């Protein structure tokens, strides 16, 4: 797999460079660069003590590590995105989940996006995943063979939801899927797991015995082919903004029933409105993110990559980055990005309409 790893590194460097140049040339004269361009152009993490700054949908992190492209119980997908990075505690949790899930009978994990090397807004895709504490896991079981680099870019995950509907396709859903989510929810550090409302409904209808873990399973748009794990702010991250706890109960109540009304699925009245990542500048993010962006790289990607059972921590003895003074925003969009996006109770991303909870 060394060849795969090296080819992936070349793809990542080329992709990041092209994206950064494209973003830079699209800016009006005198405008502050978009944070997504700056963070999306970083190929390696900040070689400092692990720490998360800000909120899941507006922040960054330092001291990140990458999970290896291949482990005995996992394979990472979409390698060209360079999103195998996370806080060391997040990466350790993924590795543990992969081992425990295999022991439970799941064939192994296919890993989706975790975070960029230094977090921050992404060039494409997620609004969250910015502080190293989020991870996507495919609901497609890992195959018994190693996937090629091409397959990891082109293979599609399988949706668990009936085409054109809102409920689970019983031809695809198995007790093993339920067991995988139960295992993920069992870890104390996991605060919430995002799934499609149809998956939550299926669990509510079929889980017997101890149902306390269902509290962590939260319905949200999308998430029909993967589930999203979120852990809480970690020790050593005083600048990390905690999310409100999930409500009491198993969540199999009127808050779930709301997802099966017309309200959540009405067309967006303003589909062309810019996304938060298209407005955020460095002035929109916590002031510590400037130091994270400017921090030195580790000696190599291999030095901060986790494989097997040995966890490598990026420069664990190094001091946390010292924040640079935060200058005033130079673009009007910075003020918009800082104030206009209210988080939802579960996911912390802007949505076009309110929801109960």
Strand residue content: 5-15%
Structural class: alpha/beta
What's the rounded overall pLDDT mean? Answer: 83
Helix content: 25-40%
The level-1 CATH class: Alpha Beta
Any idea how many domains? 1
At CATH level 3, the topology is: Muramoyl-pentapeptide Carboxypeptidase, domain 2
- Largest sheet strand order: 8-11-9-10
Shape label = globular
**Main sheet, how many strands, which sense, barrel?**
4 strands, mixed
CATH architecture: 2-Layer Sandwich
Describe this structure in words.
This protein has 357 residues and is α/β, with parallel strands linked by helices. The protein has a single domain (2-262, 272-339), classed as Muramoyl-pentapeptide Carboxypeptidase, domain 2. It is built from nine helices and twelve strands. The chain has helices at residues 2-25, 35-40, 88-104, 149-154, 175-185, 197-206, 254-257, 288-294, 332-339; strands at residues 51-55, 58-62, 65-67, 70-71, 74-76, 85-86, 109-111, 134-138, 190-195, 217-219, 226-231, 305-306. The strands form four sheets. A four-stranded mixed sheet has the order 8-11-9-10. It has a three-stranded mixed sheet with strand order 6-3-12. Helix 3 (88-104) packs antiparallel against helix 5. Mean pLDDT is 83; it is low at 5-14, 16-25 and 309-357.
């Amino acid at each position: 797999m060394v060849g795969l790893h090296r080819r992936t590194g070349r793809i990542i460097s080329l992709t990041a460079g092209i994206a950064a140049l494209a973003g830079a040339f699209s800016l009006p004269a005198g405008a502050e660069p978009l944070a997504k361009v700056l963070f999306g152009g970083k190929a390696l993490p900040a070689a400092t003590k692990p720490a998360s700054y800000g909120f899941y949908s507006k922040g960054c992190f330092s001291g990140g590590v990458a999970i290896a492209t291949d482990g005995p119980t996992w394979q990472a997908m979409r390698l060209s995105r360079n999103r195998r990075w996370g806080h060391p505690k997040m990466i350790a949790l993924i590795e543990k989940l992969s081992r425990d899930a295999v022991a439970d009978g799941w064939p192994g994990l296919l890993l989706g996006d975790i975070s960029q090397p230094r977090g921050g807004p992404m060039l494409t895709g997620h609004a969250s995943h910015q502080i190293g504490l989020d991870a996507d896991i495919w609901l497609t079981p890992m195959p018994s063979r190693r996937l090629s680099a091409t397959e990891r870019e082109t293979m599609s995950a399988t949706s668990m939801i009936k085409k054109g509907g809102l409920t689970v396709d019983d031809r695809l859903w198995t007790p093993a899927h339920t067991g995988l989510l139960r295992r993920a929810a069992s870890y104390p550090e996991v605060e919430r797991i995002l799934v499609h409302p149809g998956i939550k409904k299926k669990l509510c209808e079929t889980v017997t015995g101890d149902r306390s873990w269902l509290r962590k399973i939260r319905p949200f748009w999308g998430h029909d082919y993967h589930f999203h794990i979120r852990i809480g702010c970690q020790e050593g991250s005083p600048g990390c903004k905690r999310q409100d706890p999930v409500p009491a109960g198993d969540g199999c109540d009127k808050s779930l029933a709301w997802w099966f009304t017309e309200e959540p699925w009405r067309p967006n009245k303003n589909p062309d409105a810019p996304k938060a990542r298209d407005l955020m500048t460095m002035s929109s993010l916590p002031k510590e993110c400037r130091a994270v962006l400017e921090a030195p790289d580790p000696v190599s990607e291999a030095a901060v990559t986790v494989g097997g059972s040995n966890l490598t921590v990026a420069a664990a003895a190094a001091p946390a980055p010292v924040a640079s003074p935060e200058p005033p925003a130079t673009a009007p969009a910075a003020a918009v990005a800082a104030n206009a996006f209210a988080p939802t109770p579960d996911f912390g991303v802007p949505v076009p309409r309110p929801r109960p909870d």
